[in-house]
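Suppose you are handed only two things: the residues of a chain and a line of SMILES describing pyridoxal-5'-phosphate. What would the bound structure be? This form records exactly that question and the answer produced for it, so the two can be stored side by side and reused later without any lookup.

QUESTION INPUTS
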Amino acid sequence: MQLCFAMKANSNLAILRLFSNLGGAFDLVSGGELTRVLAAGGSTSRSVFAGVGKSVAEIKLALEAGVYGFHVESEPELARINHVAGQLGRKAPIAIRVNPDVDAKTHAKITTGKSDNKFGIPLKYAAAAYEAAAKYPNIEIKGVQMHIGSQLTSAAPFVEAVKKVIPFVEQLKKLYGITYFSVGGGIGIVYEDALASGDAAWWSSKPEGERPLTPESYGAALAPLLAPLGLKILLEPGRFLVGNAGVLLSRVEYLKRGSGKNFLVVDAAMNDLVRPAMYEAYHEVVPLVRDSARPAMQADIVGPICESGDCFAKDRTMQTLGEGELVAFMSAGAYGYTMASRYNTRPAPAEVLVSGSRFELVNARENFDAMLAGEKIPGFLKT
Ligand SMILES: *Cc1c(COP(=O)(O)O)cnc(C)c1O
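ANSWER OUTPUT
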């Protein structure tokens, strides 16, 4: 088994070093992410390079860094990798991403294993893609890959996909001597009860059928199917490893009482955490100072950005809060900072790593000078 953390979930160098220290490698999707792995001192020789749009420059970087495998998503990409590898006098290790056409039953924007998604090569065309790969002189067929989606809350779609792909995997082992099968990531996390789910008592309070996926239940469902293959299994979890390990701290600016509606205006916004606006995602919001003596209120929790979509939560019931108080948006450790933008010229927030009672700033808050540094007024506008 080889664990390749899907670093697009959280690519801060400190997090990468943490996983690297634990023996993990990475699933990366860009030249920038590869540069981060190198900067963090991570292993590129055990990391894999995924994504539908690898550029020539990125393929070069990855070949020079000696990645474990290119996860190929199309035949033109195969041709390009072969070409670039030839120029560098290298052989490129590859696995083709197959699309098993199963419904991961998650949000449409994070479903990747249906035939109408842009990802992978449909199972029925994958044999031809491998035949093409075998003919390229600078390609070394090493494995096979799939990834059906993100935030899956049951093992059933994983099992369905693996079962669907297994006969093909066995054929690849016979034909090309592949050595690994990457089953992707996608294990979901608990968003609605994020704080409570930190306790074992919460898990045991859940009836068997309603318990969220755990590494144990995921493993128990998949290991019996995968073990007989006799291949190295690559796992690419992202969200599961970091999602509930992170919070977004924000300060209340105003409690605005509207007509029939309250708005809690906080200083974080959709540019810092886009998931609610982008995926209608739920994030639990917890006041840092909890005071059960205060009356409850109902409010929309919104940011300062000039978009109605800049809303973290609708009609949320919580303790009454006011200016200056802090709230934590739970489960912000995955797809939080990495998806942040600078919309409204809002600088990126600081990042702090906490371990027990120790903590350290691991990313400085961005300042306006840095934000404007690359911009200039062209000569033809200077009158
Ligand atoms: C995004 C992605 C993952 C990780 O998904 P999670 O849901 O965060 O576990 C793994 N593999 C591939 C190819 C991905 O694109």
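WHAT STANDS OUT: The pocket of pyridoxal-5'-phosphate is lined by residues 6, 8-9, 27, 50, 147, 150, 184-187, 236-240 (CB under 6 Å). The longest strand covers residues 248-257.
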